[in-house]
Amino acid sequence: GYWGIEISRNREQDDFEIGEELGKGRFSRVCMCVNKHTLDRNAVKIIMKEDMKQDEKDLLRAEIAIMRLVNHPNIIRMEAVYESKKDIFIVMQLHSGGELFDRIVGRPRFTEDEAFTVMYPLVESVAYLHEMGIVHRDLKPENILCGDRIEDIKIADFGLSKMVMPDEIMKMPCGTLTYVAPEVLTLNGYGKEADIWSVGTIMYLLLRGRLPFDGETREEIIENTIHGAIAWQNDPVWANFSEDGKDLVLGMLNKDREKRYTAKAILAHPWITQRECRREEHP
Ligand code: ADP
Ligand code: MG
Question: 49 among the known binding-site residues?
Protein backbone atom coordinates (compact mmCIF):
# COMPACT_ATOMS: atom_id res chain seq x y z
CA GLY A 1 0.00 0.00 0.00
CA TYR A 2 0.91 3.66 0.13
CA TRP A 3 3.01 3.37 3.28
CA GLY A 4 5.53 1.12 1.60
CA ILE A 5 5.78 -0.96 4.74
CA GLU A 6 4.24 -4.21 5.84
CA ILE A 7 1.41 -3.44 8.18
CA SER A 8 -1.28 -5.72 9.42
CA ARG A 9 -4.77 -4.50 8.65
CA ASN A 10 -7.61 -4.24 11.14
CA ARG A 11 -5.95 -6.17 13.87
CA GLU A 12 -5.82 -3.51 16.52
CA GLN A 13 -9.30 -4.23 17.84
CA ASP A 14 -8.43 -7.88 18.27
CA ASP A 15 -5.07 -7.48 19.89
CA PHE A 16 -5.13 -4.30 21.90
CA GLU A 17 -7.17 -2.63 24.53
CA ILE A 18 -6.57 1.09 24.30
CA GLY A 19 -6.39 2.96 27.60
CA GLU A 20 -5.58 6.29 29.14
CA GLU A 21 -4.30 9.12 26.93
CA LEU A 22 -0.63 10.02 27.47
CA GLY A 23 -0.22 12.85 25.01
CA LYS A 24 -1.80 14.62 22.08
CA GLY A 25 -0.60 16.22 18.85
CA ARG A 26 -2.21 17.74 15.77
CA PHE A 27 -3.03 14.49 13.97
CA SER A 28 -2.25 12.03 16.67
CA ARG A 29 -2.79 11.00 20.23
CA VAL A 30 -0.67 8.65 22.27
CA CYS A 31 -2.43 6.24 24.63
CA MET A 32 -1.56 3.39 26.94
CA CYS A 33 -2.50 0.02 25.52
CA VAL A 34 -2.53 -3.56 26.72
CA ASN A 35 -1.94 -6.58 24.53
CA LYS A 36 -4.91 -8.81 25.31
CA HIS A 37 -2.93 -12.00 24.78
CA THR A 38 0.35 -11.23 26.52
CA LEU A 39 -0.96 -8.49 28.88
CA ASP A 40 2.11 -6.44 27.92
CA ARG A 41 1.64 -2.75 28.46
CA ASN A 42 2.66 -0.53 25.56
CA ALA A 43 2.12 2.98 24.27
CA VAL A 44 0.31 3.44 20.97
CA LYS A 45 0.41 6.51 18.77
CA ILE A 46 -2.87 6.73 16.89
CA ILE A 47 -2.66 8.86 13.78
CA MET A 48 -5.75 9.99 11.90
CA LYS A 49 -5.15 9.61 8.18
CA GLU A 50 -8.05 11.87 7.32
CA ASP A 51 -7.13 15.42 6.26
CA MET A 52 -3.41 14.62 6.02
CA LYS A 53 -1.65 16.41 3.20
CA GLN A 54 0.91 14.65 1.02
CA ASP A 55 3.94 16.10 2.83
CA GLU A 56 2.44 15.08 6.15
CA LYS A 57 1.95 11.56 4.85
CA ASP A 58 5.59 11.52 3.73
CA LEU A 59 6.69 12.54 7.22
CA LEU A 60 4.58 9.79 8.77
CA ARG A 61 6.05 7.24 6.41
CA ALA A 62 9.55 8.41 7.37
CA GLU A 63 8.62 8.25 11.07
CA ILE A 64 7.65 4.60 10.74
CA ALA A 65 10.63 3.67 8.57
CA ILE A 66 13.07 5.37 10.95
CA MET A 67 11.55 3.84 14.08
CA ARG A 68 11.81 0.45 12.41
CA LEU A 69 15.50 1.05 11.75
CA VAL A 70 16.72 2.29 15.11
CA ASN A 71 17.85 0.07 17.94
CA HIS A 72 19.32 1.93 20.89
CA PRO A 73 18.69 1.75 24.66
CA ASN A 74 17.95 5.49 24.78
CA ILE A 75 15.52 5.57 21.88
CA ILE A 76 11.88 4.46 22.09
CA ARG A 77 11.49 1.09 20.38
CA MET A 78 8.66 0.45 17.96
CA GLU A 79 6.89 -2.89 18.47
CA ALA A 80 4.39 -3.01 15.59
CA VAL A 81 2.39 -0.91 13.16
CA TYR A 82 -1.29 -1.49 12.41
CA GLU A 83 -3.69 0.23 10.08
CA SER A 84 -7.45 0.58 10.13
CA LYS A 85 -9.65 2.45 7.70
CA LYS A 86 -9.21 5.72 9.56
CA ASP A 87 -6.03 5.41 11.57
CA ILE A 88 -2.46 4.20 11.71
CA PHE A 89 -1.41 2.65 15.03
CA ILE A 90 2.26 2.76 16.02
CA VAL A 91 2.69 0.43 18.98
CA MET A 92 5.82 1.19 20.96
CA GLN A 93 7.62 0.57 24.17
CA LEU A 94 5.93 2.41 27.05
CA HIS A 95 8.27 4.72 28.92
CA SER A 96 6.17 6.06 31.71
CA GLY A 97 8.31 8.40 33.80
CA GLY A 98 6.91 11.42 31.98
CA GLU A 99 8.46 14.00 29.71
CA LEU A 100 11.83 15.52 30.60
CA PHE A 101 9.92 18.81 30.29
CA ASP A 102 7.86 18.03 33.41
CA ARG A 103 10.99 17.00 35.29
CA ILE A 104 12.60 20.37 34.55
CA VAL A 105 9.82 22.81 35.35
CA GLY A 106 9.12 23.39 38.99
CA ARG A 107 12.44 22.12 40.28
CA PRO A 108 15.74 23.85 41.02
CA ARG A 109 18.36 24.17 38.30
CA PHE A 110 20.46 21.09 37.60
CA THR A 111 24.01 20.96 38.85
CA GLU A 112 26.57 20.14 36.19
CA ASP A 113 26.80 16.55 37.44
CA GLU A 114 23.02 16.16 37.36
CA ALA A 115 22.90 17.67 33.86
CA PHE A 116 25.57 15.19 32.77
CA THR A 117 23.37 12.22 33.68
CA VAL A 118 20.80 13.47 31.15
CA MET A 119 23.19 14.94 28.59
CA TYR A 120 25.38 11.87 28.23
CA PRO A 121 22.68 9.43 27.04
CA LEU A 122 21.10 12.24 25.00
CA VAL A 123 24.28 13.07 23.08
CA GLU A 124 25.18 9.40 22.77
CA SER A 125 21.85 8.60 21.13
CA VAL A 126 22.00 11.67 18.88
CA ALA A 127 25.49 10.54 17.78
CA TYR A 128 23.96 7.13 17.00
CA LEU A 129 21.17 8.71 14.93
CA HIS A 130 23.56 10.98 13.03
CA GLU A 131 25.88 8.07 12.34
CA MET A 132 22.88 6.29 10.77
CA GLY A 133 22.03 9.35 8.67
CA ILE A 134 18.96 10.25 10.70
CA VAL A 135 18.20 13.84 11.68
CA HIS A 136 15.56 14.10 14.42
CA ARG A 137 14.61 17.76 13.80
CA ASP A 138 12.43 18.15 16.90
CA LEU A 139 14.62 17.49 19.91
CA LYS A 140 13.09 19.18 22.94
CA PRO A 141 12.21 18.19 26.51
CA GLU A 142 8.65 17.21 25.49
CA ASN A 143 10.07 14.58 23.14
CA ILE A 144 12.52 13.13 25.65
CA LEU A 145 10.84 10.63 27.94
CA CYS A 146 12.09 9.66 31.38
CA GLY A 147 11.93 6.39 33.28
CA ASP A 148 11.61 5.98 37.03
CA ARG A 149 14.98 7.63 37.24
CA ILE A 150 15.24 10.91 35.38
CA GLU A 151 18.48 9.90 33.65
CA ASP A 152 16.86 6.82 32.13
CA ILE A 153 15.89 8.85 29.07
CA LYS A 154 14.56 7.73 25.73
CA ILE A 155 14.19 9.91 22.65
CA ALA A 156 10.65 9.84 21.21
CA ASP A 157 8.69 11.45 18.38
CA PHE A 158 10.34 10.86 15.03
CA GLY A 159 7.39 12.67 13.44
CA LEU A 160 9.64 15.27 11.78
CA SER A 161 12.70 13.08 11.31
CA LYS A 162 14.45 12.47 8.03
CA MET A 163 17.03 10.13 6.55
CA VAL A 164 19.73 12.20 4.86
CA MET A 165 22.84 11.72 2.76
CA PRO A 166 26.07 12.71 4.57
CA ASP A 167 26.15 16.32 3.35
CA GLU A 168 22.54 16.74 2.37
CA ILE A 169 21.18 20.23 2.88
CA MET A 170 17.60 20.59 4.05
CA LYS A 171 15.41 23.64 3.59
CA MET A 172 12.01 22.74 5.04
CA PRO A 173 11.57 24.83 8.17
CA CYS A 174 10.39 22.60 10.98
CA GLY A 175 10.83 22.03 14.66
CA THR A 176 9.82 24.06 17.68
CA LEU A 177 10.65 27.74 17.75
CA THR A 178 12.53 28.06 21.05
CA TYR A 179 14.72 25.02 20.30
CA VAL A 180 15.29 25.48 16.58
CA ALA A 181 18.67 26.43 15.03
CA PRO A 182 19.12 29.87 13.42
CA GLU A 183 19.96 28.40 9.98
CA VAL A 184 16.57 26.63 9.97
CA LEU A 185 14.86 29.99 10.50
CA THR A 186 16.93 31.96 7.96
CA LEU A 187 16.13 29.33 5.28
CA ASN A 188 19.84 29.18 4.42
CA GLY A 189 19.86 25.41 4.40
CA TYR A 190 20.66 23.16 7.31
CA GLY A 191 21.91 19.69 8.15
CA LYS A 192 22.39 17.39 11.13
CA GLU A 193 23.99 20.24 13.10
CA ALA A 194 20.50 21.62 13.67
CA ASP A 195 19.92 18.77 16.16
CA ILE A 196 23.04 19.78 18.09
CA TRP A 197 21.71 23.32 18.49
CA SER A 198 18.55 21.86 20.04
CA VAL A 199 20.63 19.71 22.39
CA GLY A 200 22.53 22.88 23.33
CA THR A 201 19.31 24.68 24.21
CA ILE A 202 18.36 21.70 26.39
CA MET A 203 21.71 21.76 28.21
CA TYR A 204 21.37 25.52 28.71
CA LEU A 205 17.85 25.02 30.04
CA LEU A 206 18.96 22.34 32.51
CA LEU A 207 21.82 24.42 33.89
CA ARG A 208 20.36 27.91 33.71
CA GLY A 209 16.70 27.15 34.41
CA ARG A 210 15.46 29.05 31.38
CA LEU A 211 15.70 28.97 27.60
CA PRO A 212 18.69 30.64 25.92
CA PHE A 213 16.64 32.35 23.19
CA ASP A 214 13.15 33.24 24.26
CA GLY A 215 10.73 36.10 23.73
CA GLU A 216 7.19 37.38 24.16
CA THR A 217 6.33 36.95 20.50
CA ARG A 218 7.33 34.67 17.63
CA GLU A 219 9.24 37.55 16.04
CA GLU A 220 11.19 38.19 19.23
CA ILE A 221 12.17 34.52 19.59
CA ILE A 222 13.28 34.39 15.94
CA GLU A 223 15.26 37.64 16.29
CA ASN A 224 16.92 36.35 19.47
CA THR A 225 17.79 32.98 17.96
CA ILE A 226 19.34 34.53 14.85
CA HIS A 227 21.09 37.53 16.43
CA GLY A 228 20.91 37.25 20.22
CA ALA A 229 24.06 36.60 22.24
CA ILE A 230 24.24 34.64 25.46
CA ALA A 231 24.99 37.00 28.33
CA TRP A 232 27.51 35.06 30.37
CA GLN A 233 29.13 38.05 31.94
CA ASN A 234 27.32 39.64 34.86
CA ASP A 235 25.27 36.50 35.34
CA PRO A 236 25.74 35.21 38.87
CA VAL A 237 24.34 31.77 37.99
CA TRP A 238 26.90 31.10 35.28
CA ALA A 239 29.67 32.25 37.59
CA ASN A 240 29.20 28.95 39.46
CA PHE A 241 29.76 26.77 36.42
CA SER A 242 32.96 25.28 35.05
CA GLU A 243 34.76 26.71 32.03
CA ASP A 244 34.35 23.30 30.36
CA GLY A 245 30.60 23.42 30.86
CA LYS A 246 30.32 26.91 29.41
CA ASP A 247 32.58 25.99 26.48
CA LEU A 248 30.38 23.00 25.68
CA VAL A 249 27.15 25.02 25.73
CA LEU A 250 28.72 27.73 23.57
CA GLY A 251 30.11 25.12 21.17
CA MET A 252 26.63 23.65 20.69
CA LEU A 253 24.96 27.06 20.39
CA ASN A 254 27.44 28.34 17.81
CA LYS A 255 25.35 30.23 15.25
CA ASP A 256 27.78 29.10 12.52
CA ARG A 257 26.64 25.55 11.82
CA GLU A 258 29.98 24.62 10.31
CA LYS A 259 31.80 25.52 13.52
CA ARG A 260 29.20 23.98 15.83
CA TYR A 261 30.40 20.92 17.77
CA THR A 262 29.38 17.60 16.27
CA ALA A 263 27.87 14.82 18.41
CA LYS A 264 31.15 12.92 18.14
CA ALA A 265 33.17 15.94 19.25
CA ILE A 266 30.87 16.44 22.23
CA LEU A 267 31.44 12.85 23.36
CA ALA A 268 35.18 13.60 23.34
CA HIS A 269 34.78 16.94 25.19
CA PRO A 270 36.40 17.09 28.65
CA TRP A 271 33.08 18.05 30.30
CA ILE A 272 31.78 14.64 29.19
CA THR A 273 34.91 12.48 29.38
CA GLN A 274 35.91 13.58 32.89
CA ARG A 275 32.49 12.68 34.27
CA GLU A 276 32.41 9.45 32.27
CA CYS A 277 35.65 8.35 33.97
CA ARG A 278 34.29 9.22 37.39
CA ARG A 279 31.12 7.23 36.67
CA GLU A 280 33.15 4.18 35.68
CA GLU A 281 35.14 4.40 38.90
CA HIS A 282 32.04 4.91 41.10
CA PRO A 283 29.08 3.50 39.19
P1 ADP B 1 3.48 14.38 18.63
O2 ADP B 1 4.03 14.18 17.26
O3 ADP B 1 2.02 14.60 18.65
O4 ADP B 1 4.25 15.40 19.43
P5 ADP B 1 4.76 12.34 20.27
O6 ADP B 1 5.29 11.12 19.62
O7 ADP B 1 5.72 13.38 20.72
O8 ADP B 1 3.64 12.96 19.32
O9 ADP B 1 3.87 11.91 21.51
C10 ADP B 1 3.15 12.90 22.22
C11 ADP B 1 3.37 12.72 23.72
O12 ADP B 1 2.90 11.40 24.11
C13 ADP B 1 4.83 12.73 24.17
O14 ADP B 1 5.30 14.04 24.36
C15 ADP B 1 4.75 11.93 25.46
O16 ADP B 1 4.26 12.72 26.52
C17 ADP B 1 3.71 10.88 25.13
N18 ADP B 1 4.38 9.65 24.62
C19 ADP B 1 4.79 9.42 23.35
N20 ADP B 1 5.36 8.22 23.21
C21 ADP B 1 5.35 7.65 24.44
C22 ADP B 1 5.83 6.39 24.98
N23 ADP B 1 6.42 5.48 24.19
N24 ADP B 1 5.67 6.15 26.30
C25 ADP B 1 5.07 7.09 27.08
N26 ADP B 1 4.61 8.28 26.65
C27 ADP B 1 4.73 8.57 25.35
MG1 MG C 1 6.12 15.36 20.27
Answer: yes
